[in-house]
From TrEMBL:
Keywords, alphabetical: Oxidoreductase
InterPro entries: Aromatic_CoA_ox/epox, Ferritin-like, Ferritin-like_SF, PaaA, PaaA_PaaC
E.C. no: 1.14.13.149
Class of this enzyme: oxidoreductase
UniProt organism field: Fodinibius salsisoli
Entry GO MF terms: phenylacetyl-CoA 1,2-epoxidase activity
PANTHER family per UniProt: 1,2-PHENYLACETYL-COA EPOXIDASE, SUBUNIT A, PHENYLACETIC ACID DEGRADATION PROTEIN PAA
One Pfam entry name: PaaA_PaaC
Keyword Oxidoreductase: yes
Protein name (record): 1,2-phenylacetyl-CoA epoxidase subunit A
Amino acid sequence: MEDSTKREAFQERIDKGETIEPKDFMPDRYRQQLIRMMSQHAHSEIVGMLPEGNWITRAPSLRRKLILLSKVQDEAGHGLYLYSATETLGASRQEVIDDLLNGRAKYSSIFNYPTLSWADVAVIGWLVDGAAIINQTMLARSSYGPYARAMVRICKEESFHKKQGYEMVAKMAEGTPEQQEMIQDAVNRWWWPTLMMFGPHDDDSPNSAELIKWGVKSKTNDELRQSFVDRHVQEAHTVGLEIPDPDLEYNEETGHWNFGEIDWDEFWKVVKGNGPMNRERLNARRKAHEEGEWVREAAEEYARKRKLRQEKVS
Ligand code: BYC
């Protein structure tokens, strides 16, 4: 049984805005919630390399190819910081990766949609990274030190990702009629899945209250989704693009954009593994894991030999 005095002192630290570090006392449930959320976040970054990675060999110019390569590499880096941060909670990397490969762990629903044209790369940068920044700027203030610090760096890189995406969106939106059609089509396909990234409505979100009490989240799923809509509707209109939502309307009283209902059946279908690309994404990760076996073996052997050498010296 955890000492209730320790738990009260923990909550007081959170309420004062203090940061919790790996060796500090934390309730088991806080640890478990963070392992769940941070490992899912790490998986999302790694699986998130696949939809855009699909276009690296077909980028329309050398400049675009360099930008896309570096963006996809950044995402690998984000996954690595986040796996390392999850390990500070006592979770083994092997275990969390096995959970992903066995289909037990979740990762963001957004990466289970196909990238059908080059315009999808632009729209992912603008909308998906735009959504990630809104969520992760909040997480950069989260109560768990290693997660918050990883988020600060990740958000800086995501800002560059969003800018390159929006620049491309703007270019295509003022391009030839075919380019305009391509970019609008990509917005039509990615808008609703991006709104789903923020998770279920607050009333249907079992984890939010606890995460907010512990200072992991400071805003609810619906609050973040609204900030996303407000910002991105303006950005779409600036470049002459339409948002595919007949219920979208500016509300003078609240100063926010009202928007239509998300298709929650589609959301849960994708989260449960039955979206358009779930199987392909997991198969691609399994294949990469199998092909990387020799690298893991070599790294383990190197570490074993280094340890032996150090033991001989001391
Ligand atoms: N997709 O109680 P709730 C990126 C699950 S990648 C799948 O509201 P919570 C990028 C949820 O896990 C950035 N599952 O949960 C990379 C829970 O199930 P479990 C991705 C979802 O934790 C490459 C259940 O539904 N960002 O930026 O309070 C290229 C009930 O939900 C989703 C992160 O990972 C979903 N969309 O809130 C470009 C951010 N939504 O676990 C860009 C970190 C909900 O109880 N995570 N579920 O079985 C979070 O902020 C939060 O965990 C969530 C969910 C907002 C996602």
